[in-house]
Amino acid sequence: MARSKSPRKAPARKAGKSPAKAATRTATAPGDAKAARRTARGQRELQAVIDRKDARRKGKDKGDDAPMQAGARRQPERMPAQHVAKPGHEADLDLAPRFEAPDYRGSGKLEGMKAIVTGSDSGIGRAVAVLFAREGADVAIFYLDEHEDAKETARWVEKEGRKAMLVPGDVRDPAFCNRAVKRVAKQFGRLDVLVNNAGFQLHAERLEDISDAHLQETLQTNVAGYLQMARAALPHMEEGASIINCGSVTGLFGSPKLIDYSTTKGAIHAFTKALASNLIPRGIRVNAVAPGPVWTPFNPADKPADEVGEFGQDSAMGRAAQPEELSPAFVFLASPVMSSYVNGIVLPVMGGPKG
């Protein structure tokens, strides 16, 4: 009878000793390891140089953080801590936005042309209307209810030797858009440029804080208003005409407290590209400008005063732009002698990337 084998016993371990672990091999030649140590030592030396410079600079080098100035005249760097009631009147601002562009010399880039600029009672719209007039265009000033501001814009357009037409109304209403554009086309004889600039912005801490009425106000003004104005204008536009939409940095990068507004600006960018492709057979160009922070009644009519006082400081240039720093971009896109081969772009005018 075969004997059964008893299982082997594991060799006894000496007290206090753990099982031996397999050694981890390093597949590096001695020369390579030496070179690697030398490189690491060199990197630490480079780091030490920068660390010493940082230590010397700390607390002293405030000039590096100063807001950037790169224009023909020095622009304001700090905004007043002020809150105003909507829709926001330019005349109520403690710091008047700069729209005059006194160093800009017109050269007939829009000579004899007829333009509509929505939201041109103040801010970017006013600055655009003034430069359009300086370049030779008659301008229809579309606005909501800011009559005194709109009259001031008209005064500046006429000061440039061009005709101004005041058109109050609500771009959310398609019937108004149709009626108003027809009146402008009849009085001016034709329509060459439409600038969609009217907008609504209201911050909210959380998405749940945006009511249905708030959401619809933003969507109907910023998206439907743009589509309706373009639809009303196109029957009066011919080859060589152009549409310029006002987008935003928020449409490119978003904004945590402007969720609905950012959404509409992204939609405007997409609308610009889609309509540009659609209108190629008709010879009508469509482009957009995407501004960064700009000092207009828009933000004081939205944010609390303390936040308005810091407006623009987180931009790449460390300050908000003035409207006169934006308006030449609209002239460029409107002028067939400057941008006849520019179509479907979203032109960022936001002071550069934030590093």
TrEMBL record:
<dbReference type="InterPro" id="IPR036291">
    <property type="entry name" value="NAD(P)-bd_dom_sf"/>
</dbReference>
<feature type="compositionally biased region" description="Basic and acidic residues">
    <location>
        <begin position="87"/>
        <end position="96"/>
    </location>
</feature>
<dbReference type="InterPro" id="IPR020904">
    <property type="entry name" value="Sc_DH/Rdtase_CS"/>
</dbReference>
<comment type="similarity">
    <text>Belongs to the short-chain dehydrogenases/reductases (SDR) family.</text>
</comment>
<keyword id="KW-0560">Oxidoreductase</keyword>
<dbReference type="InterPro" id="IPR002347">
    <property type="entry name" value="SDR_fam"/>
</dbReference>
<dbReference type="Pfam" id="PF13561">
    <property type="entry name" value="adh_short_C2"/>
</dbReference>
<protein>
    <submittedName>
        <fullName>SDR family oxidoreductase</fullName>
    </submittedName>
</protein>
<feature type="compositionally biased region" description="Low complexity">
    <location>
        <begin position="20"/>
        <end position="29"/>
    </location>
</feature>
<feature type="region of interest" description="Disordered">
    <location>
        <begin position="1"/>
        <end position="96"/>
    </location>
</feature>
<feature type="compositionally biased region" description="Basic residues">
    <location>
        <begin position="1"/>
        <end position="16"/>
    </location>
</feature>
